[in-house]
Amino acid sequence: MSGSIVDHVAGYDFKIPDGMDLQENADGTLTLAANGQEVVKGLELDSTGHFTNASADALAKQGIHLSESDAAVAKTVMTAGNMDAKDFVHQNAGDMHEVSRDLWYGNDTPMYTDPLTGKLLGADHNELRLLWGGDGATGIDADGNFVFDVSEMTKNGSWQGVYSADAQRLLQDGQMRLLLSLNDATQNRVFEVVVGADGKAIIDKGSLVGKALFQNDGGEARFLGRFAEVAQVTHTDDAGVDHVRMLATHLGKGIDVFNGEVPRVVDEIVPITALDVPSAVDVLPPPIIPIWGRRPLERMSMAEDGTPPPYYFYEARLPEERREAFRARRSPELEKNPNTTLDPMKEAERYLSALSKEERAHVQSMAEKIGPLGSKVEITVCIPVAGHQEENNIYRSLENYTFQTLQKDKFELVLFVNHPDVDKKGQPIQLDGTLEEIERFKRDYPDMPVKVVYEVVPIKEAKIGRVRKLLSDAILERQLQRGENKDIIMVSNDADNYGVAPEYLANFTKRFAEHPTVDGMLGQLDWDPETYVNEPLIHVGTRLFQYLSVIGRHRSGGMVSSGANFAYRSSIYAGIGGYMAELPGGEDVAVGQAIIEARGKKDALRFAGARHSRLYTSARRAIGALKKGLSPVEQWDMGFSPFDDDIRRMQVSLGTTLDYDDAGSLDKLKHGFEHVIDRTLSVYERGETLGKDTPNYKKALGWLGVQYVVEDGKVKITDMSRLIEGLKRYQKDGVLMRDAKSGKSLAERTLKAQRLERRVEELQKDLDVQKQNAEAYTKVTQRYDQLDRKKKLHVDVEDDISAFDEILTAEESTLKSVGSFKYSENHAFYDNAKTFRGKDQHNRPIIVKRAPSDSIERLKFGPAIGDTIESYLKKQGFVSEHVLLPRYIRKDEAANEYSRVYDERGMDLEARLGGNLSFEVKDALRIMLQVGRGVMDLHALGVVHGDVAPSNILLSKRGAVLIDLDDARMRKDSGVFVDADRLRLNRFIQPPEVVRHPAVFKENIDVYQSGATLYRLLAGQWPYFDQSIEDQPMTHEERMYAYKAFHEKGDMAFPDTVPVSVQGIIKKAMDPNPNTRYQHMYEMVSDMMDALEEPPTSPT
Predict the structure, then answer these.
(1) Is the four-CA dihedral 356, 350, 601, 633 of positive or negative sign?
(2) Containing H/E element for 681?
(3) For strand 163-165 and strand 158-160, is the pairing parallel, antiparallel, or unpaired?
(4) What is the spatial distance between Cα 585 and Cα 577, in angstroms, rounded to a whole number?
(5) Which 8-state DSSP code applies to residue 488?
């Protein structure tokens, strides 16, 4: 088999066509992909490494056949013995490169001593980050291979003297290499691994390099060599030496001697399974890529110094140093038994006793200043307050807690007002009015349980982690002093909220009571709606990363903690050793990480629910990110400082209210949206390159109301109309919704009144539209009737009922009965259908159709629940010259069967067309006009036919009629139709929006199908037909998905005999977008009447 490669998957070798990839899944099954698209998933191997029969059948349905083949496979095996590293390098010299390290990009960083730690820092020749990639940043991908990831290297972050390098450009140009050396003595002889354009360097686990220099340590990669270096290759000299400049380095302990086992490469001739794809067969992508089925979207990498990722990522590998730090701080009881129920008093006593004498005294002093813990207090809100920066925010923030439904003696708000002693220039800090605003609040709301402690913090200790730790420790000290052996719920909030759900605190107490094994709960956090109103770029960017985070949270099962809205039990806080105050940032995230590490399970943390745990906070950091050209998701990369004066004092309103009806404003906004969306997706692409047009991203942006394409790697919006409509509504309601959800009664009443007014306006608009539709419908029917009276819709056909001759003359004793009607089972219309010829009591031809009762759709809503569509229409007195309803319906309970009797109305169009015959243009239009009139009559009663095809259209001298309402559906109150499964129907006529489970559609699916049928009548074939698909051993559903791609593309060729006007009708009827095709059948009928009456012209 040409054009194939040998791949080692799941412990076995396979010969796979070029362009395809066989991947092992976490559950041990395999997935076959073609050009990055999933083809077959869930493939299984038997104990000998061969595909099971079921898997072979699944591959065969995609045109992929299995065979056996012999191949020489290079294998790396571990042989017994010892070998010096130098000998190993000499033995494998052909696989290694000699390098000359000409330069390290050290960013001109001088050596210096850190005044706080005394450590010598700088000039470490590792300015950029070399990170583990793979699943969860473990360094191991889904196939078990080892992965380094340099995709996050900054564009302009590498220089030394007059030299510089653009890391991203090097990746795209293919000039980046990963150099792997064994030890110091042999470091000039390296294994080189090409770093892909996506920033990933992948080392095959079964290769010589993989076996010699890497180890899978409990699911995490370990580098056993000395240096793993990312380098720019500048040139190769005449001696074959690669000259390189170093960008980043990962250090290992090095290998001096291979003891006991030595990796060697040998060739083996082995029988392998080959996957053969005939060249004439296209391997089709799958119909659906499940959102949850792929690996997580979240960034998979973490800095080796343990810097935690932003809180919105849920999968990140913790460095061993961080894990060790967690273990060192952990309670002995928790270390011994991760599932233990912690004793709140014992844990508090252990934790506080472990503090230094000076630290404990400091904590006790703070506890004394705060005052004793109330006897009924169950929950404490801990709020760090920058005493020199929050005068514009603190009163409003505190006021938002006044609407809490929890009794005031059961909670308290504890404020730690603090500021550094000096500023960055060493000058004393000047207080603003923060303390005065707090006192004003206490005077205005004397019944609110507000506690305040104020301290000046030495600048060396002015870290948010240190502040949070002191405050939380003081709460723990007060709990210990109260003496009640019961957990306190500690809630971490910030000092700049804009609204708090009235049930906020009650919700936390309730949920912790309901989930005794849960240690922490994350609340819903959102930016202030006023910012969203004035800054739609922040609104869209934030909603996008929130939606992606929801996907990540569901897929990974992970949860994180946040300093702005997180609650935890006091016992677990003590059990994990409290906040890691020494961290420069991310201490709030580390709390959640420590809890999960201690408990050994992700569900130790939970989400506290969207509505009742909601807290609105200031978007000032998001605004700061936007000013710097970043997206909202990147605000956490900007870092935090006690001197964020500008950010803390920033007023949230940056602009004026936008006019969403102004074309110029919308154009600028579109470019802004594209920038923010592109940057947001780029953040998620750092961890795993899925492509910005992956269905996962399109799903999230679809929720926002955005359709887009990717051009030259950048997002280009193609439709944002739904988004703009949503932003318009939010412009009116956003701030009111915040206040209403925060318990402000006036806002609730105003919002209800505003929405009621809008509903009245919407109803009036609906009435106006219905009136316009009714008027247009009436005009079309009047015009149709005029044409009909003038015999301009008549189609000259011959009626032939000779097939009924034997039935009409048969003895009745030889026939079966249904009611008063007779029929013969020996005279079926089709070999596989229970449709028979018969006669009525007047010896006139009839048709009897029998079907299993459970195959007939019954109405599930409305006034006729349980009825079939046909029964419902008969009860409604429905009459249409172009829809054939049964004369008689009977249900046979014993046989579980429905029998229906129809008048004979001629031969169906499928039979009349035969092979590839076609109708003359005018006759085709006449037939479809009559069909269209029947469809209009159905639509008037809220029924969609759903299968307008030649086989369901009978034609006789009396005209054309629609039959077979088995796939018809009733319109729901929402105005749409729903069907659990339409994949069983005619694949040649189904619009793309119905090819899914379940199908949700509008009445214009009948329009689409009418367009396809009109094409068939004119061309003698379907608009889209592919013989190679028909020849493949596929299921009907698989073929439906295969043809969906054609229907979505919308490209069709017309015979020269079809006039341009009729081509236009078919194209509009078959528009893949249901919103831009004909919305109503009468619109298509009107255009067909125009085409019927226009003088003959030659197509161009």
Answers:
(1) negative
(2) helix 663-685
(3) antiparallel
(4) 17
(5) P
Bridge partners of 499, per DSSP, are 616
Cα of 794 vs its chain's centroid, Å: 53
Least Cα distance to 1086 among 937, 928, 921 occurs for 928
How many Cβ atoms sit within 10 Å of the Cβ of residue 965? 26
User: Which residues share a beta bridge with 450?
Assistant: 413
**Tokens at 981, concatenated:** 């499964």
d(CA 596, CA 599): 5
- The pLDDT, as a whole number, for residue 964 is 86
Quote the tokens at residue 997.
């489970």
Cβ atoms within 10 A of the Cβ of 919, count?
A: 22
Q: Which of 551, 533, 553, 537 is nearest to 622 (CA)?
A: 537
The side-by-side arrangement of strands in the sheet containing 65-80 is: 4-9, 12-17, 261-276, 65-80
Looking up tokens 């030595």 gives 262
Closest CA to 1078 of 959, 966, 928: 928
Tokens 């609340």 identify what position?
523
Q: Is residue 466 exposed (0-12), middle (13-18) or buried (19+ Cβ within 10 Å)?
A: buried
User: CA 926 → CA 296, 932, 1085, 1089, 1090, distances in Å?
Assistant: 55, 10, 10, 9, 12
CB burial readout 599-613, b (16+ within 10 A) else e: beeeebbbebbeebb
Q: Rg of the chain's alpha carbons, rounded to an integer?
A: 36
Give the pLDDT confidence of 103-157 residue by residue, as tens digits.
777 665 554 445 555 554 454 444 455 678 887 788 898 888 999 988 877 766 6
**Listed residue (629, 542, 638) closest to 585, CA to CA:** 638
Res 934: pLDDT = 96
DSSP 900-936: EEEE---EEHHHHHTTT----HHHHHHHHHHHHHHHH
Residue 161 neighbours by CB under 8 Å, 6+ apart: 108
Residue 969 backbone phi and psi in degrees, to 5: -140, 155
State the Cα–Cα distance between residues 949 and 989, nearest whole angstrom.
7
